[in-house]
């Protein structure tokens, strides 16, 4: 079976791993957070690889670059949500630090990829 272009991107694979790990993490959150913090974390993290995938189908580098920037914004959003989870005592400081580092790595790799395609003028 032939793969889609985005399935070969390291940034997409890393983003999928981040989503999966967050999904496991939020299983331990209180059920009364189901429609607020849990839902917000699910949406923000899921949009990271989804925007990379959707952007890979863009017809221009500028358009793809915009989708990549949206992915980065979703990472920032998830970091803010994890901060709230930590303040509410749902995650430990170690868990927060772990996901913070994963988020920083993702932002750096997506930003580097974005710079690369902008410089080359193609993806």
Describe the protein's topology.
Elements: H1 10-26, H2 37-55, H3 61-87, H4 93-120
Helix pairs in contact: 1-2, 1-4, 2-3, 3-4
Question: How does this model look, in words?
Answer:
The protein has 123 residues and is an all-alpha fold. Helix content is 74%, strand content 0%. The chain has helices at 10-26, 37-55, 61-87, 93-120. Helix 1 (10-26) packs antiparallel against helix 2 (37-55), helix 2 packs antiparallel against helix 3 and helix 3 (61-87) packs antiparallel against helix 4. It is elongated, with a radius of gyration of 15 Å. The model has no long low-confidence stretch (mean pLDDT 97).
Question: What labels would you give this structure?
Answer:
74% helix, 123 residues, mainly alpha
Tell me about the largest β-sheet.
none
SSE order, one letter for each helix or strand? HHHH
Our measurement of the CA-to-CA distance between the termini, rounded to an integer number of angstroms, reads 22 Å
What ranges have pLDDT less than 50 throughout 5 or more consecutive residues?
none
Helix content range of the residues, please? over 70%
| Total DSSP helices | 4
Shape: elongated
């Amino acid at each position: 079976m032939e793969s889609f272009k985005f399935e070969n991107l390291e940034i997409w694979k890393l983003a999928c791993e981040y989503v999966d790990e967050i999904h496991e993490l939020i299983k331990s959150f209180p059920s009364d957070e189901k429609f607020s913090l849990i839902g917000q974390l699910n949406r923000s993290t899921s949009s990271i690889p989804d925007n990379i995938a959707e952007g890979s189908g863009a017809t221009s580098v500028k358009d793809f670059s915009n989708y990549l920037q949206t992915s980065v914004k979703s990472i920032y959003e998830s970091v803010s949500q994890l901060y709230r989870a930590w303040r509410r005592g749902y995650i430990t400081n170690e868990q927060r630090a772990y996901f913070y580092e994963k988020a920083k790595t993702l932002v750096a790799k997506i930003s580097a990829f974005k710079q690369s395609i902008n410089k080359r003028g193609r993806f």
